[in-house]
């Protein structure tokens, strides 16, 4: 079981991370990892986070399933799976530090641009689903941080925030299943530190999802997009910090 100091830091961090997840559909790893990694080794944290993401995605997906934009998910899905495979390979052969810095800078600039120009932009063509799905899959495998690309595509295709959240959650669930499967093959879940952290953080995850869903019902599209850009800003900043301090 985790020590008390770990619980005091990890529990409130996971509550906040999963509240954000329930509101916008992504952000858990990059919100929680920079903080929790100070007291939990990454080889323990990342597999535990993948399990929690899977449970949260399934639970939230059941709640939002009626709003799922199936066509948009199916457009991105094959490219995302291909990206996950390539990302797993790239994880072994390229330096991560420079890539994290460049990626973080891009996300921050995109978020700042969106916050300055909050009006809805013109919809994009369905062909872009392959680019966003493939790139998101690569970044999910590399950093657990590709879901913001799915969000950008979905908010340029859909009007209803509930449809965006539901579709985003479905993509995260599929990605989480893949990541958990890879960790199973790697034997990560035979480590009782991983299992202990996952079990003790389940209540924090559940509370965060509950709080996020309560607030999400009050968001119209304009507010939802503002929150989404704030999360993108936090996500990009976290990537920059991880890249610069790695």
Textual characterization of the structure:
α4 runs parallel beside α8 and α6 packs antiparallel against α7 (147-155). The chain is mainly alpha-helical and 246 residues long. It contains 10 helices and no strands.
* Helix-strand sequence: HHHHHHHHHH
Calculate Rg over CA atoms: 17 Å
Mean model confidence by pLDDT: 81
Q: What percentage of amino acids are in beta strands?
A: under 5%
Low-confidence stretches: none
Number of helices: 10
Shape: globular
> Level of helix content?
over 70%
Count of beta strands:
0
Please report the distance between the alpha carbons of the first and last residues.
27 Å
Going by helix content, strand content and strand pairing, the class is mainly alpha
Largest sheet: none
């Amino acid at each position: 079981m985790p020590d008390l100091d770990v619980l005091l830091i990890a529990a409130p961090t996971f509550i906040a991370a999963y509240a954000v997840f329930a509101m916008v559909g992504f952000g858990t790893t990059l919100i929680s990892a920079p903080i929790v990694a100070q007291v939990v080794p990454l080889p323990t944290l990342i597999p535990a986070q993948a399990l929690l993401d899977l449970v949260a995605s399934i639970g939230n997906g059941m709640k939002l399933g009626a709003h799922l934009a199936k066509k948009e998910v199916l457009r991105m899905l094959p490219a995302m799976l291909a990206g996950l495979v390539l990302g797993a390979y790239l994880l072994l052969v390229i330096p991560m530090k420079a890539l994290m810095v460049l990626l973080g800078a891009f996300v921050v600039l995109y978020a700042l641009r969106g916050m300055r120009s909050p009006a809805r932009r013109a919809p994009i063509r369905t062909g872009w689903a392959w680019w966003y799905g493939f790139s998101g899959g690569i970044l999910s495998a590399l950093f657990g941080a590709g879901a913001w690309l799915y969000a950008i595509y979905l908010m340029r295709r859909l009007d209803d925030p509930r449809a965006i959240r539901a579709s985003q959650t479905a993509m995260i669930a599929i990605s989480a299943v893949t990541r958990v499967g890879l960790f199973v093959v790697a034997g990560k879940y035979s480590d009782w530190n991983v299992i202990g952290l996952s079990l003790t953080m389940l209540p924090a995850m559940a509370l965060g999802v509950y709080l996020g869903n309560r607030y999400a019902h009050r968001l119209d599209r304009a507010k939802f997009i503002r929150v989404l850009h704030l999360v993108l800003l936090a996500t990009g900043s976290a990537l920059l910090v991880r890249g610069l301090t790695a």
